[in-house]
Amino acid sequence: MPFCDAYWSRLLNRSYDYEEEINALPHCGRDERYEFVDCCANFGYWSVLASSKPFGAQHALAIEVGGLNVNV
Asked: I want to staple 62 with a disulfide (CB 3.0 to 4.6 A). Which of 12, 41, 48, 70 is the partner?
């Protein structure tokens, strides 16, 4: 994560709540088993959370379409 990125670097502040309303969804479903597909994932923030223990350690797939990814 580039620290000079004003949008993403604020996530390093523990008191900052990123997309609080979306954050509630994985918390509610942490006891259910599901596969999480994160389209347009950028850095895969939601995929990392969904696959973490506090969010139920779900299977997650992060997809980001970009020029370098398409040329692989």
From this structure: 41
Phi, psi dihedral angles at 8 (to 5 degrees): -85, -30
Per-residue pLDDT tens for 15-25?
888 888 878 87
Full-model pTM: 0.68
What is the Cβ-side half-sphere exposure of residue 42, based on CA atoms within 13 angstroms? 7
Per residue in 32-54, pLDDT (tens digit) is 999 999 998 888 889 999 999 99
The domain limits of the chain are: 6-70
